[in-house]
Amino acid sequence: MSDTTAPKAVEGGLNFLDDRLGSTTFLKRNLKKVFPDHWSFMLGEIALYCFIILLLTGTFLTLWFKPSMTEVIYDGSYTKLDGVKMSEAYASTLHITFDVRGGLLMRQIHHWAAVLFMASILAHMLRVFFTGAYRKPRELNWLIGIGMFTLGMLEGLFGYSLPDDLLSGTGLRITQGVAEAIPLVGTYIYMFLFGGEFPGEDIVPRLFTLHILLIPALILGLVTAHMMIMWHQKHTAMPVRNQTEEQVYGYPFYPVFMAKTGAYFLFTFGVLALLGAFAQINPIWLFGPYDPGAISAGSQPDWYMGVLEGALRLMPNWEITAWGHTLSLNVLIPALIPLGIIFGGAAAWPFIEQWVTGDKRLHHVNDRPRNAPVRTGVGMAAVTFYGLLWLAGANDVLADKFHVSLYATTWFFRFAIFIGPVLAYILTKRICLGLQRSDRATIEHGVESGVILMSPDGAYSERHEPARAEERHVILSKENPRPERPAVDANGIPAPSTKGPVGHLRSRLNRAWIADDVPIEDVGHDGHGHGNGNGHAAIEAGEDHREISKH
Amino acid sequence: MSDDTNENTAADEPRGEGARPARVVGTPSPAAGHRVLAAQEDDLRPAPGAADDYAAPAGAGAELDEKAARRAERIVSAFFLLTFLASVGFIVYFIGWSGRDGGMHGVVRTRESNFWLGGLMALAFLAMAAGVTIWVRRLMTSAPIIQERHELRTAEADREGFGAAFMEGARDSGITKHKMMRRTLLLAAAPLGLAPLFLLRDLGPLPEKRLRTTFWGEAVAKAQKEGKKGVRLVVDGTNAPLKVSDFASPGGMITVLPEGIEEDLPEGDVLTQTAKAVTILINVPADEFKPAKGRENWHVNGIVAYSKICTHVGCPAALYEQTTHHILCPCHQSTFDATDAAKVVFGPAARPLPQLPLGVEDGYLVATSDFHEPIGPSFWERG
């Protein structure tokens, strides 16, 4: 093989395609596409690989699974259930587990992959939120991500409902109870979903079609859009040297990133195989077939449904009955409000932030969380809100493990859900500002050198040295907020954007956004500051100049 | 998609700022210090990122690089061989062992094959992943590069051009001019879009009065037609009718169903009717029992029957605490007082569990009517 031409096998195929599609231009352009490095950029990849693994293992499972609620008498390898009446769905799941070689492994990998899929999406979204990577121009991908997480919740709920075991039937029973609580159309939705009264014989086949066809197809479409938009817009970068709004620095897609990401797929699959082999998940043969009159204590959904479960548990029993109608606030509020706040808030956030800050620029270099204290504080408040609801979904387990009264845990969460997020916001914001102050000290005074000097009169002091260029660059990536134009100009005429209650609100939020911010200026190595005129922070760091006050 | 102009420039970043080793931000560069090829071009300055890399021995000469590269290659190859062995092992185990005596048959063999197949599969994937990772970090010589980010928005002229073309098309199509056509098109589209929704009508029956009655009503009516007082209670699971004397000790709780629910109903309906009719029977000590007004004769010596379906979202309220006489739903911890008409004492449920009127006939416990209110979760039309 010569050093400059691709081997025949590659070139032949490439030319075949190029003659018909003209694809080589695109391939050549993208072969060396740069991918910036940061460990946190791998979180979304885990989700992608989990999705691929879910498709592979899920297809395997459909080859034997029978989505039918017809009653059969079990007669298979699991002798403890011999002669027991159960649905065909449950019997075929037992068949996959105990009679198909590798069936249990595929079932367990499938379930673990679902759990990891949702966890990695959430971790990825937190990374994106706290670094401000959702900012313009990436709002669309942020919304697509929220869409995928929501679809993932449904997909998971429908998936673990399919085996028709005692636990999954209980989940469906709760789903039915929540559907029934919807005002006006609740009973109709219930009847149309289940094809009659609960459980009926239609729900498993219907959920099966949604689970293996409709929702995966939607997710696949969104994944494709997500990836294409990411590829087109180029990845965001962390605020380190060589990463600017105008350029991206990193290793080329081929060969480095391609090999790394391939290895990452293998790591994900390997870890899931390890879990599937050695960590039991959803042992449906221990739960038994679904029986509407039976239940076991400690029934828990998969983790991503825990937040809904927790909300249902800690809601007081409010119900309104008037004019012959019943409004079940005890079910409606927990089913709609918490997830509404989290998903609705997350979806609206990029636009709210843009409106409050008035920042309509493109952002390719991420923020450090400390440099956006309000955003980071709000994010931590949301994390606390979600986390408390999630914990409340296991309050019986908590009460049991920590030997406290069950009702005390409920009361604790009823208050904590309001107090916790506020505390989290205040604490986080203070921590962020403290870190900003420490950053400013590093820039102004340098770092401790460990060298102790004794002055002629006997006093000891430690010499400070300027921080390394890399560190200074990271710290100086902070964009100091520009004070808004005063609401009223010299002649007493209010600015158009501050008029009316909405404008007033915006001005106040804007002030809150930048209040307490600790400006960090590059004072240079000699301790004298560079000039910075009209409030635009021109950040200079060594030889690397980055203009950020472009509008 | 992307319209890069491919301006890749090797990043030339002189490193100053003293001799202190720089901290790494991001993943250290692959193969820094082993850059066999690149070493010839830039032997005068440190390789990009070289000072960043803790993993690479700094200042290694070309000869050492050759040696290190050979060693790295051997390690990578060892991992790849491990993957080869593990996947061959997977196949060998599957063919040779997993099917012995005609398959798995039972928990023990299932666990065994799960360990072997899963373990070997995990080993194969992880070894290959480790091999590729070491290959990237030790042997790949690609240098980090810089690419320009491009303006995403289209030039103003093109935007305007699009606007003009759009309006021209609209004009040419005549849709702006022919008002009647435009309006009838919209008119035509509206019902056409709604029509498919009607196809969903047969997904299920209308609710009607279905949620207001249970099989107890049907069974009681049938029994009374035969001149009996009510329908017998049978124990869930055994289907045996229950005598008062069988359930005489206070503190007990048992799940019961109306007699005939398995025999009289078509097979497909049994589970659905059970899901509504399932009832708990509790023997409350006489001195603690407070029968509700109007229900003074609904119990038999303190034996009371409540619907087992929680009024919150429908889980079975299956836990009974003998000392406090509380019925607890394990799903969301709604708690009901068995001595006091199953009133809610804690949790998200808003209404008491409906009570089933009981009586005695020939020494057997019977239900004398259906529940007097809808069982289970509340719904809009419930009232």
UniProtKB/TrEMBL annotation, chain A:
Residues passing through the membrane, by range: 46-65, 111-130, 142-162, 174-195, 207-231, 263-281, 331-352, 372-392, 404-427
Say yes or no: keyword Transmembrane present. Answer: yes
The prosthetic group or cofactor this protein requires is: heme
InterPro entries in UniProt: Cyt_b/b6_C_sf, Cyt_b/b6_N, Cytb/b6-like_sf, Di-haem_cyt_TM
Entry coiled-coil feature ranges? none
Q: Per the record's keyword annotation, is Membrane included, yes or no?
A: yes
Name of the protein in its database record? Cytochrome bc1 complex cytochrome b subunit
UniProtKB/TrEMBL annotation, chain B:
> What residues does the Rieske domain cover?
257-367
Membrane-spanning intervals of the chain: 75-95, 115-136, 184-200
| InterPro entries found in the cross-reference section | QcrA_N, Rieske_2Fe-2S, Rieske_2Fe-2S_sf, Rieske_Fe-S_prot, Rieske_Fe-S_prot_C
Pfam families attached to this UniProt entry: QcrA_N, Rieske
Q: Which PROSITE patterns match?
A: RIESKE
Keyword flag Transferase = no
Tell me if Metal-binding is a UniProt keyword of this record: yes
Which cofactors must be present for this protein to function?
A: [2Fe-2S] cluster
Q: What membrane topology term does the record carry?
A: Multi-pass membrane protein
Give me the ranges of the annotated region Disordered.
1-42
The source's domain of life comes to Bacteria
Q: Where in the cell is it found?
A: Cell membrane
Q: Which UniProt keywords apply?
A: 2Fe-2S, Cell membrane, Disulfide bond, Electron transport, Iron, Iron-sulfur, Membrane, Metal-binding, Oxidoreductase, Respiratory chain, Transmembrane, Transmembrane helix, Transport
- Main subcellular location: membrane
Instruction: Extract the PANTHER family matched here.
Output: CYTOCHROME B-C1 COMPLEX SUBUNIT RIESKE, MITOCHONDRIAL
What is the documented function of this protein?
Answer: Iron-sulfur subunit of the cytochrome bc1 complex, an essential component of the respiratory electron transport chain required for ATP synthesis. The bc1 complex catalyzes the oxidation of menaquinol and the reduction of cytochrome c in the respiratory chain. The bc1 complex operates through a Q-cycle mechanism that couples electron transfer to generation of the proton gradient that drives ATP synthesis.
Q: Which family does it belong to?
A: Belongs to the Rieske iron-sulfur protein family.
Could you identify this protein by its name?
Cytochrome bc1 complex Rieske iron-sulfur subunit
Instruction: Please report the organism this UniProt entry assigns to the protein.
Output: Actinomadura parmotrematis
